[in-house]
Automatic annotation (TrEMBL):
Membrane topology: Peripheral membrane protein
Encoding gene per record: murG
Main location as per UniProt: membrane
Name of the featured protein: UDP-N-acetylglucosamine--N-acetylmuramyl-(pentapeptide) pyrophosphoryl-undecaprenol N-acetylglucosamine transferase
Superkingdom in the source lineage: Bacteria
Catalysed reactions, semicolon-separated: di-trans,octa-cis-undecaprenyl diphospho-N-acetyl-alpha-D-muramoyl-L-alanyl-D-glutamyl-meso-2,6-diaminopimeloyl-D-alanyl-D-alanine + UDP-N-acetyl-alpha-D-glucosamine = di-trans,octa-cis-undecaprenyl diphospho-[N-acetyl-alpha-D-glucosaminyl-(1->4)]-N-acetyl-alpha-D-muramoyl-L-alanyl-D-glutamyl-meso-2,6-diaminopimeloyl-D-alanyl-D-alanine + UDP + H(+)
Length: 364
């Protein structure tokens, strides 16, 4: 069998796509899987690192203001659809998956115009523009949140949750503390700003380093590549106290296992990981995303008393007051843990692949 998985742009699109591919490969070891991404975006390096072939399209997003790039946008789309069509005709997939992001639109347009079964995987609680536009053309739409019929045809919806690597929740705490060189007798705070880092979280964390040291808190601070040199310099004087800046965390299973409390952006993948790991968290939604969808992701947890929310504009003044208060309150941590675990979908990847194989004519 042959499958094309299209989309990307951020880790929130790429890692679910890779999780789907891994499950397909587990079920169908001889299946051929091809990714299609946007040239210049992070999927062009992350996907090959995961062991899959990827083809790039020259496509970018529509700017939300009048720019010269917008005048060229229709031409870029037509060229990308044409290239995607040629790719489909040569590869001849049994089914196509779109995970959101620029590159999924041309591939899904080309696939549905040729009668190739197509599935969308929408990660967020507020649907992306590409997925909303293509919803009526595709066969199935796998979603992570309830109430998505306000964006999509209800008859096509399957509530699956987001594809998350299940091993993310299997880290051993003792091994995790040893891996990061942390003290088992002191609390651990994990700060993650997404695959590209987050300026607001980094600035608030840098300012809070003396407070964390005084409180005896240990810190794993994932900064992102752009912010890492400065953060490394800021954290260096506090290394002996167990306060560490990390450019990127490869072993997220161990980072979650070590953490007592997590501060995080509210991207769909991060929220799904927090549900699966059951970690008490403080979510700081990014304001720099379409339709403010991270706030909507965060509120989906907050309304179930499964996470705390601090606005990006309040991070400098409130974030570490909330974090230190939560670190000092084990009972509240346990309460958040119990509530957030109820929102997890550990079988999400398997369920999505079930739907994909049905579309491809191979009943799982």
């Amino acid at each position: 069998m042959k499958f094309i998985i299209s989309g990307g742009g951020t880790g929130g699109h790429i890692f679910p796509a890779v999780a789907i591919a891994n499950e397909l490969r587990r079920r169908q070891p001889d299946a051929e899987i091809l990714f299609v991404g946007a040239n210049g975006r992070m999927e062009m390096t992350r996907v090959p690192e995961a062991g899959y072939q990827i083809v790039g399209l020259d496509i970018s997003g529509l700017q939300r203001r009048l720019t010269p790039q917008n005048l060229l946008f229709p031409i870029k789309v037509m060229r990308a659809v044409r290239k995607a069509g040629k790719l489909l005709e040569s590869f001849r997939p049994d089914a196509v998956v779109g995970v959101g992001g620029y590159a999924s639109a041309p591939v899904l347009l080309a696939a549905t115009s040729r009668g190739i079964p197509a599935l969308i995987q929408e990660q967020n609680s507020y649907a992306g523009l590409v997925n909303k536009l293509l919803a009526r053309r595709v066969d199935k739409i796998c979603v992570a949140y309830e109430g998505m019929s306000r964006f999509f045809p209800a008859e096509k919806l399957v509530l699956t949750g987001n594809p998350v690597r299940t091993e993310i929740a299997t880290g051993d705490r003792a091994a995790a503390l040893a891996f990061f060189g942390l003290d088992a007798s002191r609390p651990v705070l994990l700060v993650i700003g997404g695959s590209l880092g987050a300026r607001t979280l980094n600035q608030a964390t840098a300012a809070a380093l003396p407070r964390l040291q005084a409180a005896g808190v240990q810190l794993l601070w994932q900064t992102g590549k752009l912010y890492y040199p400065q953060a490394q310099e800021q954290a260096a004087p506090f290394g002996a106290a167990g306060l560490y800046a990390l450019e990127f965390v490869q072993r997220m299973d161990l980072a979650y296992a070590a953490a007592d409390v997590v501060i995080s952006r509210a991207g769909a993948l991060s929220v799904s990981e927090l549900c699966l790991t059951g970690k008490p968290s403080i979510l700081v939604p990014s304001p720099n995303v379409a339709e403010d969808h991270q706030t909507k992701n965060a509120l989906a947890l907050v309304k179930h008393d499964a996470a705390l929310l601090v606005k990006d504009t309040e991070a400098a003044t409130r974030l570490y007051d909330e974090a230190l208060a939560l670190l000092r309150n084990p009972a509240r941590q346990q309460q958040l843990n119990a509530h957030v675990r109820q929102l997890a979908h550990p079988e999400a990847t398997s369920t999505i692949v079930d739907e994909l194989l049905k579309l491809a004519g191979k009943t799982p």
